[in-house]
Specification:
heterodimer; A: alpha+beta; SH3 type barrels; 2 helices; B: Rossmann fold; 2 domains; two-stranded antiparallel ribbon; 62% helix; 8% strand
Chain lengths: 73, 574
């Protein structure tokens, strides 16, 4: 499923990131890449960003980008 | 020729405390400069090495890695080539993500040392790092530091000269991630720790339900403090100083100069009913000093105090997350709120912060919105002072109009400009309790900057006003532009003088409306037009640099058109 569909507070493992290398590189910079554990903290209404915890870092991801991140829990 | 100074590069992820270390290393000799020919700024300063040699130290913009994704990374990559020593600043509370850059940097073959920063925070976060083991694993010197309290800085400096260049095997990207994972498990032990109050607050401010009310509360409290401190300083410090100490001196000088004449007009200005009026006389020593020091400075102090607290606390990225979806509707993303907030202090740093926005469309929209609808604190202070005398609701009306313009202009530009706003992706730093010393230091820097940068402009502005009147240039311009002003906006012809000075300083321009005896309606229209029609020259220069000439011309056309229509609408509706 996509990161947007994950419930708040749940932890999952990143499986794949769809889309171009630019988005992949930017996500990787912050440590978001396949086989990494990711915990969803919150999502915002009206297509707002998704906030996640990755390692010790809290990251805000735009809704469009979060829809490209495939996770499995 | 002078021997080339050693170049020391401070490099690391964003928000790991590089600048704090930078200011510790350089002490008072900090010079902030802009890197020519690029859009990404960096600071450089000097420091003394233990053997007395002077070295150049450069605060490189924060990057996560050396992938050429954005301008900041490109600049960082270029700079590594010219460095003699790299000080890699690492956030000790976030070792895993930070070490990736460390592994990339060590391959560059430049002598390098790791400053394991925020060391003090590891203790209460339950993180234990074995420094010796980390040095061994990385093959690089490691010194624990705390930029804010200067712990470890001395040792860092002492070790700088002992560093030697080493060669490391070049690892592939995936191998580097594996390596960071391996190193971290070897050197770091995590202990369980309880959620602190600060961490609970964090949860509130990013939660979807409570986040927005919390943001509203923060903004309300911020403005309340700004008003309270600003008004307090004016009422209890600035007004008394000017009225009880400075006024008698000026009265003596006025008598000495014979109460009129060229020199009197330039220095003291016109007497209003035989009295000096600091707001309306428009002499260099009266209005020229009163505007910056008594009307504007108090609000500059209060605004930057609150802004500094918000910045150090770590709230701005959270606010950006909260408003992201709303900002998308006007063609921006959440982070664009940061330049706007800085712009409320002064449009110049606001315009510089537009660099945070990568894409040209977004930059254009943000720059245009800021120039049109975000008045600077100097202008706000003058509007509060002048329009406030007619009633607080008129002040509110002016800011309401500007906010409505912000929304309408944003919606329109988003609708009619090709492209879409980019997706956000940013790190939300942990909350930190602001350290009073750091907050006051920053406040002091910003306030002295205002005094150095703004006061000369205010004095020039007041001087030019006098020349315009003395040489009857205003009469000529009033005749030329009068039809627009009176016919379209319902303003008296002399308001052209304020519009003219508005290019130089908006606060002086608002101040010039005072002696014109405008009706409340005219005053509101004039204040809005002054805010909207064009940025001041200092902002204009930065905007040209950030946007390029072509986009700036387009943006300026939008500004002028907006001023004409909004002024006419207000004249018609009010």
């Amino acid at each position: 499923m996509y990161l947007t569909e994950l419930r708040n507070g749940q932890t999952a493992v990143v499986k794949d990131i769809e889309g171009g290398g630019g988005a992949k590189d930017r996500l990787e910079s912050l440590g978001i890449m396949p086989e990494k554990k990711i915990t969803k903290i919150s999502s915002h209404f009206w297509g707002g960003p998704v906030t996640v915890m990755i390692g010790k870092t809290k990251v805000a991801i735009g809704h469009g980008m979060a829809k490209k991140i495939i996770v499995e829990n | 020729m002078e021997k080339k100074k050693k170049q020391i590069l401070l490099m690391g992820n964003p928000n790991v405390g590089k600048s704090a270390i930078f200011s510790r290393l350089t002490g008072a000799r900090v010079t902030i400069s802009n890197y020519p020919g690029t859009t990404v700024g960096f600071a450089q300063g000097q420091m003394k090495l233990p053997d007395g040699e002077r070295a150049m130290i450069i605060d490189v913009p924060g990057v996560y890695n050396m992938f050429p994704i954005s301008k900041a990374e490109e600049v960082a990559c270029e700079m590594v080539e010219s460095g003699d020593i790299i000080v890699n600043v690492v956030d000790a509370t976030n070792l895993e993500r930070n070490l990736f850059l460390t592994l990339e940097l060590r391959e560059k073959g430049v002598p390098m040392i790791v400053a394991l920063n925020m060391w003090d925070e590891t203790k209460h976060k339950g993180i234990e790092i074995d420094i010796e083991k980390l040095e061994e694993e990385l093959g690089v010197s490691v010194v624990p530091t705390c930029g804010l309290t200067s712990e470890g800085i001395k040792e860092l400096v002492e070790r700088l000269e002992t560093l030697k260049a080493k060669n490391f095997n070049k690892l592939k990207r995936s191998e580097k991630w594996e390596e960071t994972g391996r190193v971290v498990t070897k050197v770091q032990v995590l202990h369980h720790h309880h959620h602190t109050l600060v961490e609970r607050l964090e949860d509130i401010s990013t939660s979807p339900g409570l986040g927005l009310p919390f943001a509203a509360l923060v903004i309300f409290v911020s403005f309340s403090i700004i008003r309270f401190v600003g008004e307090g300083l004016i009422g209890y410090v600035c007004e008394p100083v000017f009225n009880d100490l400075w006024l008698p001196v000026m009265e003596k000088l006025s008598n000495l100069l014979g109460a009129s004449g060229f020199l009197h007009d330039i220095l003291i200005g016109k007497l209003i009913d035989g009295q000096i009026d600091f707001g309306a006389s428009f002499g260099l020593l009266t209005t020229g000093l009163y505007v910056p020091f008594a009307a504007v400075l108090p609000y500059i102090v209060s605004f930057y105090l609150v802004l500094g607290l918000l910045e150090d606390w770590g709230y701005l990225p959270r606010l950006a997350t909260q408003v992201d979806n709303l900002m998308h509707k006007i063609g921006l993303h959440g982070y664009a709120i940061v330049p706007m907030i800085l712009g409320l202090g002064c449009n110049v740093p606001g315009a510089m912060a537009l660099r945070l926005l990568e894409n040209r469309r977004e930059k254009f929209i943000a720059a245009t919105l800021m120039a049109i609808t975000v008045p600077c604190m100097a202008q706000i202070a003058m509007i509060i002072g002048l329009v406030g005398q007619r009633g607080g609701r008129y002040v509110a009306l002016i800011f309401g109009i500007l906010f409505a313009l912000f929304v309408i202009k944003g919606l329109l530009m988003n609708r009619f400009m090709k492209g879409s706003s980019p997706e956000i992706l940013w790190e939300i730093p942990p909350y930190r309790i602001p350290k009073p010393k750091a907050v006051f230091k920053k406040l002091w820097m910003r306030v002295t900057e205002f005094i150095k940068e703004a006061v000369p402009f205010v004095l020039i502005g007041v001087f030019v006003v006098n020349l315009l009147y003395i040489f009857h240039i205003i009469d000529f311009l009033s005749a030329v532009f009068g039809p627009i002003l009176t016919g379209l906006w319902g303003l008296p012809e002399d308001t052209i003088s304020a519009l003219l000075i508005g290019f130089l300083r908006k606060d002086v321009a608002v101040g010039m409306l005072g002696p014109l005896n405008l009706t409340t309606k005219q005053l509101i229209t004039a204040c809005v037009v002054l805010a909207v029609y064009f940025p001041c020259v200092a902002t204009f220069i930065i905007l040209v640099r950030e946007l390029g000439v072509r986009d700036m011309i387009k943006s300026a056309c939008i500004m002028l058109l907006t001023a004409i229509t909004v002024g006419a609408l207000l004249n018609f509706l009010l």
